[in-house]
Amino acid sequence: MTIVPDKLRLVGRALVLGLGVIFFGWLFFGDTDAEFRSSDGKWADGEVQFKGRDFRVVAWDFQDYKLGCHAATATLLRATPQRWFNVFAWPSYLRDRKWRVPYSDAHPELEPTGFPVAQADCSGPVDLKSVDRNAQAYLSQL
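Now predict its structure.
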């Protein structure tokens, strides 16, 4: 009679331990930040999610760059590859729109850090309503 409760207790502990490992793995490895760049190599940015800088902010900043720097033909590219061995990131790969942005290796004009060697001079006025509209349109198409 005491064998059944002992087995149940052991199974319960293993279940709690397994769920704890999954939770902490997802917490620390599951929501991967991604880096992005422009196709012309003159702009780069990235997410810092724990600071609230997510993909929506990056997309908005890219639209600001396109309008302010007269780079209408530039496209947004993801510079962070998907690492399929990170099983905790799989839900993010399936759920988050940032992973639908086309991937491309570093541009020759970018430093090893991923940021442009010299930022373009973009001091012209930018219509923020146009930036908002363009960013929303870009995000909705993903």
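Strands lie at 35-38, 44-46, 76-78.
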